[in-house]
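step: validate -> pass
step: tokenize input -> pass
step: predict -> running
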Amino acid sequence: MLRLLVLVVALALTGCATTNPYATFATAGVTHAQNLDAVLAAAERTGVDATSWRLLDADLLDNATVEQYATYSEQDAARSRALQRLRAHAKQLATYFEALSSLATTDAPELAAASVGRAWDATAALGKELREDLAFPPAGTVTEPLKIVVRKAIQGEMRKELEERADAIRAELATQEAVLQTVADTIGHDVTLGIAVAERLLVIDPLTADAPVHSPEAWVATRQRLRLAEQTVAEVGAAKTSATALREAFEAITAEPAKESE
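step: predict -> pass
step: emit ->
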């Protein structure tokens, strides 16, 4: 994820000096999607583990109920649906940017433009589902698209594509930002509570008991797993930062440059 941030920041800074900034941007988008897929898969597993530990803690305190189990299970299911939709959206957005990059260099612009159009239709449909069907992003989180004036130097089909979709592209990237921020917040809360319970039951209690730890290697492995689970939260936060950088890079390479003094 760190390498992607370096890439998109460099892209935003170089702007028109980049030989083919759209091809570079497409590469950044694909890398973002690939990293995001792994991060969100880990977040889903970590989130389920966290709610499981919270259920066990509730059971130790006052015998957990079927109703409590159903509530936590529904939370897990809702989070899983959201993460699956976000992963699908990121993959399709990468497909669109790959097609966009091809449009910049192809010898058959009409065929490439048709491919771009199909990729965009699928991206927009998934983005609409993210915004309408999920409980998040919260209202107002996805800001109104900033009007982007496409560089005059971009010609032909590429310019036509960007003129038609620039604001919508920014909206899709902003959706990623908003959903990732919400995922980071909710996962962070659950993981913090879950780790506290698991650490008490599996790490601290066996360590502080009168008898020696029964299986030292298993204890070490468990403690390591719990400590590293916190990194998942940090990775989701980094993914949100990556989406922000990707959107800002897109704005940088498509915005009209300031008029040079003669």
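step: describe -> Residues 136-141, 258-262 have pLDDT under 50 and may be disordered.
step: cleanup -> pass
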